[in-house]
Amino acid sequence: MNFSRLIPSGLAGQKSFNPIAVGYREGSSGYLPHTAFELALIAALVMAWSLPAVRFWLLVALISHAAMPVWSLLDFVPKALTFERADPGTITESTARRWTRRRLWRLPLDMVTSASMLAAFAAAVQAP
After folding, report:
1. Which of 23, 59, 100, 115 has the fewest CB atoms within 10 Å distance of its CB?
2. What percent of the chain has pLDDT over 90?
3. Which domain, by its residues, includes 73?
4. Band of pLDDT at residue 23, cut at 50, 70 and 90
C-alpha cells in the first residue's frame, strides 16, 4: 500500500523527522517562543502568588502545560522512534492513520492551558 498521502508534503522524501517540531519553518526554531511562554508563565505565577484566584488558574495552566513534555518524553517520542524504524511494509493503513491522529491528543492539553491562562487574566482584572 502507498501511504504517501498521509505524509505532509514538507516531509516527503526524508528518511526521518522530528514529529514534535513539525509545523515550524525550515531553519527556524520552535524553542524560542515555547521558552518565552514558559518564562512568562513562571513570571506571572511569581508576581501573582499573593492573589489566590489568579494563582489557582496559573497553577492549572502550569500543570497542564508541563504534562505535555512529560507525556512526550515517556510515551510519544519512544513510540515515534519505534514507528519511524518500522519496516514500511509491515505498517497497515489503520496503524498509519492511528499514528497520525495520535498528535490530536495534544489539543485538549493546549486548550486547558489556554483556557486557564484566560481565566487567570480574568481573575487578575477582577482582583482588588
Report:
1. 23
2. 35
3. 52-128
4. very low
CA distances in angstroms from 121 to 2, 43, 116, listed in the order given = 48, 14, 9
How far apart CA 110 and CA 86 sit, in angstroms, is 30
77/69 Cα distance (integer angstroms): 10
27 sits in the region (left: phi over 0; alpha: psi -120 to 50; else beta) called left
Residue 7 falls inside a structural domain: no
Distance in angstroms (rounded) separating the CA atoms of residues 8 and 90: 20
48 and 125 Cβ atoms separated by less than 8 Å: no
In a domain, 30, yes or no: no
Residue 72 lies in a domain: yes
Instruction: Return the C-alpha cell found at 9.
Output: 508534503
Q: What is the pLDDT of residues 61-94, one digit of tens each?
A: 999 999 988 888 888 788 778 877 888 788 788 8
Average pLDDT, the chain: 79
In a domain, 101, yes or no: yes
